[in-house]
Amino acid sequence: MQVTGIRLTERAIEAVLELQRVNAQFSESILRLYIDGKGCDGFYYGVTFSDQLEGDVEVLTKPIRVFIDQNSLEFMRDAIIDWVDDDRGRGFLVENPHHGKFRGKFFKRQAWQEKLSSSSQSPI
Prior knowledge:
Elements: E1 2-3, E2 7-8, H1 10-22, E3 30-39, E4 42-50, E5 56-61, E6 64-69, H2 70-76, E7 80-86, E8 89-95, H3 109-119
Parallel strand pairs: 1-5, 2-7, 3-6
Antiparallel strand pairs: 3-4, 5-6, 7-8
């Protein structure tokens, strides 16, 4: 399945291509986005290079292949992934316009994914 709605800035695309160019281990890998949990200050986002995992959804962001798990996608639609190298640090920055809509208690990734999966099933 392919979806749109998550965008990489030109700086982020350049950073991904550069990381793949200088690190042989990343050259054949895809870029994966995920949410690793949520705390008082918001979501904890992850951006990594890896193989595609079962259930991943491809995000149409040419020329980079980006994948995200379906649960994270629900919270990250319309997000913009940027690359920063300034006084905040150096790395990917996720700007999520829907961040404020998701209030309440979340748990670490595995626990909240299980909670979402079980809540989407019909009671017997």
